[in-house]
Amino acid sequence: TRPREASEPRFHHDWERRVFAIGVASPIPIPGGSRHNVEQMPPADYLNTSYYEKWLQSRLKGFIDAGVITAEEFEARVAAFRDNPNAQVPSREAPEQVEATMTRLLSWNSPRRAVDIAPKFTVGDAVQVRNIHPPNHTRLPRYVRGKPGTVTRYYGAYDLQDTMPEGVETPVEPMYAVRFDGRVLWGDAADANSVVYLDMWESYLQSV
Question: Angle at CA 77, nearest 5°, toward 73 and 83?
Answer without folding.
Answer: 145
